[in-house]
TrEMBL record:
Protein name: PKD domain-containing protein
Pfam families in the cross-refs: CHU_C (PF13585), SprB (PF13573)
InterPro entries: SprB_repeat, T9SS_type_B
Protein's organism: Chitinophaga cymbidii
Length: 886
């Protein structure tokens, strides 16, 4: 008889730094022996995969496993999907041993079998199996082993389809009130079925289909039950839309109206998931899901890891862990997660390559002391950051054995850097930043924030902590003395000096200095000799980076300046010589002299009789000389602006349109030597016509206009009259026009593009098609063609095809005539949709996402419609199988 005085427990810090000592406090009572593991394996570890292979060639498309212990022996039962066999793997006394496999035969195993569970009751051991597509027949089967799972001749009972199952995938069996129940997820009709086996497994079960709960189930494949705080929950994986669904049943799984929560795809850890397994890990609920594909492919497989923060109803985070070692090939399920010593394990069957993979989460080697048996655990440390699990096992192997665990987060030691010394100008301040991510901050002035603002010189220090570790840094702050400057004008601006000169004098600051005029790049010279008239900005920067800025003015010597302007008279026409220039002095001391270009200077400021063009005029006195750049701009050349339209096909529809420009408006127009009231002359036949235009200044231009007769080819349909069968189409092609407009008689001619040169017609009866041009000038603007329609009807689906690119039977499609409505879907043996098409003339090439599919049997579902004898479309549906051969 044992008492309950023994209690296993200990305290540990939540967070420590890499290399920092970890001190655990043992709070256990009544304990005689201890085993501490400071780096235990957990779901937080990176998973490792090892392949057990095909185990004697017994596995053929393995899909689900079930683990059971009978006496000292461990067994794993594997369901083969395609050969209707149950395989038993005998691991002996440890699931880490190499197993011995036994094929137990069919035993009523359904075709396309999937989920499996092992149950022990008063009558012995039973294995429950579900599976079968809706087309082949979905079923639930009980296999009775009697008193021992080592029985090589178990008896199977096929109970048929219970609860409207449609390709049931995963299975969960449980006991409630002395009766046995099961949940299975139906991938083909997106529902959940609950099975009732009664108080034993000898009578036919009953079932209820709970439907598509919340309308969120989408090809459900995996199911896992968990109880927390007295309430039951089911976690379901959707294969088609890669989602997690939580069903909340309350205190009993017999509730028929659970609350539904769509958890989405946390952290994009799901990619066509097949199954999920949950585990409580040191007070935390975690899950591992197996994905049937790798991203961007239709093959491979991957692992997703999920954490339910605060419990099963809390926030869920996830991460994608990939395919370690590339050992997954369509992983179809994951067993329950089990612990052996300090490591966690699970089995994963690979349906595509027929192998069994063992997944492990092994203990780490990051603790300086891996384990201890002392009542007072030693001080140790971790050499890498991460999340670690500490396990304590007390009185191991006795009836009073207990366990306790704690999670500890290890972070990198803090490192703080205030940077190099800081130099400031008088009156400014520096913001010192100790960086983010630390638990506490302590500055030399007593402040405790991340930032410190400093405006006086001196040494500043900060100490930061993180996870019990600390680091310190300091920085020196220097303040520069204030600066002043003055500007001395060395040269003013006059007519001989277009720019002045200035010297900058500086006091204070720290030499050397950099000088900048009006924002230009700095120079070490204080004299500027190319300064224009006006207000200028000077900026001086000292060696500490301190800046002072001020303005000064550059002035002119008015007594030594000369400026002049001019009044100009442009020529009247673009080729006349009646322009003039008159120079006017606006600033300067007389007397003045004037010259035009290279001519001699004269006392008069006027120049006449000039043609249009560019001129340079000079004016001077005794000290200065100035020049003017002038332009005598003539009117633009007078143009008649003739736009003509030639005659088309001898129709007398030519036209001349005048748009006079240049010269000086208004304009007078002469047509064929006669004054014209307008500028448009229509209805012209081919010939030559004379036109003249005169502007307001008497400038004149004349031209002859030639109108020609343009001949354009007739619009033409290239097709001859043709006969086709109902449902067929004909390509109509027109030519010789810039645009097209197709019509049909009768109007239901079914044209694919009424405004294209080439269009596709699919008439329902004898039809005449007419094409016209809307804007073309064709001499004959329309053409017609007749299409006669026959009414032959037939439809045949082949039973095989060979996509080997030999030009014969390379595509799977119907052989038909007169098909007006068509829809075809193709599936593989797992019920996955591979191809769909709405055109009876377009078939499947045997590939999915560019990858050739394997030789075998596939399923088609076809809906098509033929015209009846009374002109109606009659829809029909066909289902069947066909073979892909190569």
């Amino acid at each position: 008889m044992f008492t309950n005085a023994q209690t296993a427990g200990f305290s540990a810090p939540d967070t420590v730094c890499v290399g920092s000592p970890v001190q655990l406090q043992n709070t256990s009572t009544g304990i005689t022996s201890y085993f501490w593991n400071f780096c235990s394996g957990s779901i937080y570890s990176n998973p490792e995969l090892s392949s057990l292979g095909n185990l004697g060639g017994l596995l053929k498309d393995p899909v689900f496993t079930a683990i059971a212990k009978d006496g000292d022996n461990y067994y794993v039962f594997v369901i083969n999907n395609t050969d209707d066999r149950l395989v038993r793997l005998d691991f002996g006394t440890s699931l880490l041993n190499n197993p011995v496999g036994t094929q137990l035969g069919n035993i009523s195993i359904p075709s396309n079998a999937e989920g499996v569970q092992v149950v022990q009751d008063a009558a012995g051991w039973h294995i429950i199996v579900v599976g079968g597509t809706a087309l082949g027949g979905s079923r639930v089967v009980t296999i009775d082993f009697g008193a021992s799972l080592a029985n090589n001749a178990p008896v199977g009972t096929d109970w048929g389809n219970i609860g409207n199952m449609a390709y049931p995938i995963d299975l969960y069996v449980f006991e409630d009130g002395g009766k046995y129940y099961g949940f299975t997820c139906n991938s083909e009709n997106n529902t959940i079925t609950r099975l009732d086996f009664g108080d034993d497994f000898t009578q036919p079960p009953t079932g209820i289909n709970l439907g598509n709960l919340g309308g969120v189930l989408n090809a459900p494949t995996g199911i896992f039950a968990i109880q927390e705080n007295g309430n039951w929950h089911l976690i379901v994986t959707n294969e088609r839309d890669s989602k997690l669904i939580r069903l909340d049943f309350g205190p009993s799984l017999l509730n028929t109206a659970p609350a539904v929560v769509d958890l989405g795809n946390p952290g994009t850890g799901l990619n066509h998931p097949r199954d999920i397994s949950l585990i409580r890990e040191c007070g935390q609920i975690m899950a591992i899901a197996v994905n049937g594909r790798e991203p961007g492919t239709a093959s491979g497989g991957a692992i997703g890891r999920f954490v339910f923060h605060g419990g099963i109803t809390g926030n869920v985070t996830g991460e994608y862990l990939g395919n370690p070692g590339n050992l997954f090939d369509l992983p179809h399920a994951i067993s329950s997660i089990f612990r052996v010593d300090n490591e966690l394990y699970a089995f994963v069957p690979n349906a595509r390559n027929g192998t069994l993979t063992r997944m492990s989460f092994e203990s780490c080697t990051d603790a300086s002391i891996p384990s201890s048996t002392s009542a007072s655990p030693p001080v140790y440390q971790y050499n890498r950051p991460g999340r670690y699990t500490i396990n304590l096992i007390t009185d191991e192997g006795t009836a009073t054995q207990q366990t306790a665990c704690r999670n500890i987060v290890v972070v990198e030691p803090p490192a703080v850097d205030l940077g190099p010394e800081v130099r400031l100008c008088d009156g400014s301040a520096a913001t010192l930043d100790a960086g983010d991510g630390f638990s506490t901050y302590s500055w030399s002035d007593g402040s405790t924030g991340r930032f410190l603002t400093a405006s006086t010189g001196g040494t500043y220090a900060v100490t930061v902590t993180n996870g019990g570790c600390s680091a310190t840094d300091e920085v020196e702050l220097f303040i520069s003395p204030p600066m002043q400057f003055s500007a001395d004008i060395m040269q003013e601006i006059d007519c001989r000096h277009t720019e002045g000169a200035v010297q900058i004098n500086i006091s204070g600051g720290t030499a050397p200095f950099s000088y900048s005029l009006d924002g230009a790049p700095g120079t070490d010279q204080p004299v500027f000799s190319a300064v224009e008239r006006g207000i200028h900005s000077i900026s001086v920067t000292d060696d500490q980076g301190c800046i002072i800025t001020d303005d000064f003015g550059m002035t002119e010597d008015a007594a030594r300046l000369l400026t002049a302007g001019a009044v100009i008279q442009p020529p009247l026409c673009d080729d006349s010589r009646d322009g003039a220039v008159s120079v006017q002095v606006t600033l300067g001391t007389p007397p003045f002299e004037y010259a035009l270009a290279d001519g001699a200077f004269q006392s008069q400021p006027d120049f006449t009789g000039l043609p249009g063009g560019a001129y340079k005029v000079y004016v001077r006195n005794s000290y200065c000389i100035d020049s003017l750049e002038l332009e005598l701009t003539t009117p633009a050349p007078l143009l008649a602006g003739i736009a003509k339209t030639d005659e088309i096909c001898g129709r007398g529809d030519g036209e001349v349109n005048l748009s006079p420009s240049g010269g000086t408006a208004p304009y007078n127009i002469t047509w064929e030597n006669n004054a014209a009231a307008g500028s448009v002359f229509p209805d012209l036949s081919a010939g030559t016509y004379h036109v003249a235009v005169e502007d307001a200044n008497g400038c004149r231009t004349e031209e002859d206009v030639a109108i020609i007769n343009q001949i354009y080819p007739n619009i033409r349909i290239r097709n001859e009259d043709i006969t086709i069968n109902i449902g067929e189409q004909v390509i109509l092609q027109a030519e010789n026009a810039p645009d097209y407009q197709w019509e049909s008689d009768p109007v239901d001619g079914n044209l694919s593009c009424p405004v294209c040169a080439t269009t596709i017609a699919r008439p329902l009866r004898d039809t005449r098609y007419i094409v016209r041009t809307l804007t073309g000038q064709n001499c004959v603007p329309a053409d017609t063609v007749n299409v006669h329609v026959t009414y032959l009807r037939s439809f045949f689906m082949p039973n095989a095809f060979s996509p080997n690119n030999d030009g014969q039977n390379d595509y799977f499609k119907p052989v038909s005539k007169g098909v007006m409505v068509f829809s075809m879907q193709l599936y593989n043996r797992w019920g996955e949709l591979l191809f769909q098409q709405n055109d009876p003339y377009q078939g499947w090439d045997g590939k999915v996402n560019g990858q050739p599919q394997p030789v075998g049997t596939y399923v088609y579902v076809v809906t098509y419609g033929l015209y009846s004898d009374v002109g109606e479309i009659v829809l029909q549906t066909r289902k069947g199988t066909f073979t892909l051969v190569r």
